[in-house]
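Data card: per-record layout.
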Amino acid sequence: YFNQSFLEQQKLIRFGSCITLKHVATGKYLTSCNVHYKTGSKKIISIKVFASQTLSNPNSLWIVLDYDQKNESNPIIYGKSIVYFLNKGVNENIVISRNYKSPSTGNWEVSCYEHLIESDSTNNNDTYIKSKETINIRDMEYNNFILRSHEFPFTIGNETYQEVVGHEGRVDGNDKWCIELFEN
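The structure for this 184-residue chain is written out next.
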């Protein structure tokens, strides 16, 4: 029992954990890059989901940060822990805009701020989020938007990206993300 309990503790997502967020429907990783929309906010498109399954790129790695910086290394609690996702590649937090819409689909722009993690699992009696669980991500700061990816591509320069947006509708399959601990 002790060994099993110890192994379960090692799988918990904690403040300070390095993670990846894999879109369940497409298998693509939430990724940030230093590219700007040409319209809308003209901010960094801090989010693109790329087709590569390679995790060696720091732009697909995220650090789970605590809003108050008081809970360092504590486990993340379903529906209660407010977290920031800091991208290792561009050193920015993810945010869903409440002012600018995506030029390609008219959904809310996502760029690189405060998110509440919710479990998607209906049979999970555990309090803490574990690696490889399916979650939803809501922006709790201003607008309660849900992070979504879908099959809409957009192009900037010669590069095509799979769009990630914020929306206000009900949660569906395009809103599900698999959170995984990244171990070097």
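Known properties of this structure: The first strand starts at residue 18 and ends at 23. The chain has one domain: 11-181.

See the next section for split statistics.
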